[in-house]
Design goal:
binds nicotinamide-adenine-dinucleotide; three-stranded antiparallel beta sheet; 13 helices; 2 domains; seven-stranded mixed beta sheet; alpha/beta; Dehydroquinate synthase-like, alpha domain; about 45% helix; binds glycine; about 350 residues; Rossmann fold; single chain
Length: about 350
């Protein structure tokens, strides 16, 4: 197993390895002293892992379990308020803690509830999807969706511990696992040619423990430099601005990971057309996405995509910050005038 230490406004450990779910109580007790633990999970994860999580937690504290329906639709204001009321009925105090057992939906909702219940109680992330393991469980972004858009209410609030049991990924449907692979590929393109080469060589058979730990280290470094997303952390949005457009325009029939893959492909082609990225690097990025059976194109027009990208919350005035690869392991934040966006996307289609 591997440990990564994150030094943000709250410092915490991220453990990655097999069988860690059974150590959940022991690892919490080494850091926190709750009398009661609010275990939050979803309706698909609960039948798979809640019994084991409870067995690990019960020697340490009383457990109160809250199960949300699986899926993004649960990351909403109503579910959030129900969770807060549940915690109040169960009389959790500020010395107690929450555990988020599940993917990014459970993690974001639980984190936001932890940030706001009693003005903040501790929480522990137990990611069970690849996306949650390499991205959402680390770095302290918590949020719920509003009817007006995704992640519009939230807080920066770091967990006290992250424990990723890599065995839990074995029950993920392959399609959802591949969605997480788009985020893993993103880290290679952003920061790490060796990680990228490992993915090129191994495809879906990559070394899970080593790769997740490497992605967490890379995210840890970004968060240490820009915890509150005022500069460099924007780079983690590689492929996301265009990807959000693809998700929205497809009526969310294209999943997040696949939309990000399409976004990475489009910005890589456009960056090569602009002369920013070598054509050889562009071709390697497209090839690795295809090796993971991720899509690299869309039938949505550049005009429609530009419109959707401009309604993204990352827009700043009359420019939109695009993250563009200059080489594998080296990406740039390029402020792009709104009026040039459609032409840019056309070059990448
Ligand atoms: P998810 O949480 O909806 O999980 C996907 C599906 O997999 C769900 O149906 C879930 O029940 C199921 N599942 C989870 N673990 C399983 C397992 N081990 N075996 C079988 N099924 C399992 O989706 P996700 O992709 O993990 O997360 C997406 C969310 O994460 C979005 O809401 C996104 O906004 C958020 N996100 C947050 C951050 C951040 O920094 N906070 C970063 C990226 C994404
Ligand atoms: N997933 C983007 C971030 O954590 O900033």
């Amino acid at each position: 197993m591997k440990w990564v230490r994150v030094n943000a406004s709250r410092a915490y450990d991220v453990g990655i390895g097999t069988g860690l779910l059974d150590r959940l109580g022991v690892e919490i007790a080494a850091r926190l002293h709750p009398q009661k633990i609010g275990l939050v999970t979803d309706s698909r994860v609960a039948p798979l892992y809640a019994t084991r999580a409870r067995a690990a937690l019960e020697p340490v504290a009383e457990v109160a379990e809250f199960v949300i329906p699986a899926g993004e639709a649960s990351k909403n204001g109503q579910e959030y308020l129900s969770l807060l009321s549940f915690l109040a009925r169960e009389k959790l105090t500020r010395s107690d803690c929450l555990v988020a057992l599940g993917g990014g939906v459970v993690g974001d909702l639980t984190g936001f509830a932890a940030a706001t219940y009693l003005r903040g109680i501790a929480y522990v992330q137990v990611p069970t999807t690849l996306l949650a393991a390499v991205d959402s469980s680390v770095g302290g972004k918590t949020a719920i969706d509003l009817p007006e858009g995704k992640n519009l209410a939230g807080a920066f609030y770091q967990p006290s511990l992250v424990l990723c049991d890599t065995d839990t990924l074995n029950t993920l449907p392959e399609d959802i696992f591949r969605d997480g692979c788009a985020e893993v590929i993103k880290y290679g393109v952003l920061y790490d040619p060796a990680l990228f080469a490992h993915l090129e060589e191994k495809g879906l058979g990559f070394d899970r423990e080593a790769v997740i730990a490497r992605c967490v280290e890379l995210k840890r470094d970004v968060v240490a430099r820009d915890e509150f997303d005022r500069g460099e952390r924007q780079k983690l949005n590689l492929g996301h601005t265009v990807g959000h457009g693809v998700e929205a325009k497809s009526g969310f029939t294209v999943s997040h990971g696949k939309a990000v893959a399409i976004g990475m492909a489009i910005v890589s082609r456009a960056a090569a057309e602009m002369g920013l990225c070598q054509k050889e690097d562009r071709d390697r990025i497209l090839a690795v996405l295809e090796r993971f059976s991720l899509p690299v194109s869309t039938s949505i027009s550049p005009e429609e995509l530009a419109k959707a990208a401009l309604s993204d919350k990352k827009r700043a005035g009359n420019t939109v910050n695009l993250i563009l690869p200059a080489a594998i392991g080296d990406c740039r934040i390029v402020p792009t005038p709104v009026a040039q966006l459609e032409g840019f996307l056309k070059a990448g289609m």
